[in-house]
Design goal:
The chain is mainly β. It is about 5% helix and about 40% strand. The strands form 4 sheets. The protein has a 5-stranded antiparallel sheet with strand order 2-10-5-7-9, with no helix packed on it. The longest helix is centred in the last third of the chain and has 5 residues. It is flat and about 50 Å long. The termini are far apart.
């Protein structure tokens, strides 16, 4: 596969406006960070990523928009995001810890558009924050439990 990030289609139509995503996680990084060729990246520890994205699923002309691994965090179609702070992640894997991710919106959205399925939601849990680039540590493990979304409507 020549372009794995663009081959991954992310998001499903969603007719609610999420305000918060919460749950519990445990995380244990693998022993050795590797680049995409398997070479060791010394002095770096793997890290997980947890986020919820809301994006407009049509453009200004009404054409479908489907985000992928290359643009899920950067597309101008993204109107809301809740993402775990990297600085606070426990990497011992020894206990369940809560996460609470308020969804911040960078654009106003109309309730009628939401209820008419004009937005997609993507919820991502990954044991290697750069795994989509094939950079990470083999054996990194992210456990997730009791995830819930709170919605405004």
């Amino acid at each position: 596969m020549k372009a794995p990030l663009t081959a991954t289609r992310i998001g499903q139509p969603y007719a609610h406006k999420p305000t918060n995503m919460k749950g519990y996680y445990k995380y244990k990084p693998g022993a050795k960070m590797q680049d995409r060729t398997g070479g060791e990246i010394a002095g770096v520890t793997d890290s997980p990523d947890i986020y919820c994205i809301i994006y407009r699923n049509t453009d200004n002309n009404g054409n479908p928009v489907q985000l992928d691994g290359s643009n899920i965090l950067t597309s101008p179609a993204v109107v809301g995001i809740g993402r775990i702070e990297q600085s606070g992640i426990d990497k011992t894997g020894s206990q369940w810890l809560p996460f609470n991710l308020p969804i911040s919106y960078n654009a106003s959205i109309k309730k009628d558009d939401v209820l008419s399925w004009h937005y997609n939601i993507a919820i991502v849990f990954t044991s290697s924050i750069r795994g989509g680039e094939f950079i990470g540590a083999i054996g990194s493990t992210l456990w997730i439990d009791n995830v819930s979304l709170t919605t405004e409507y």
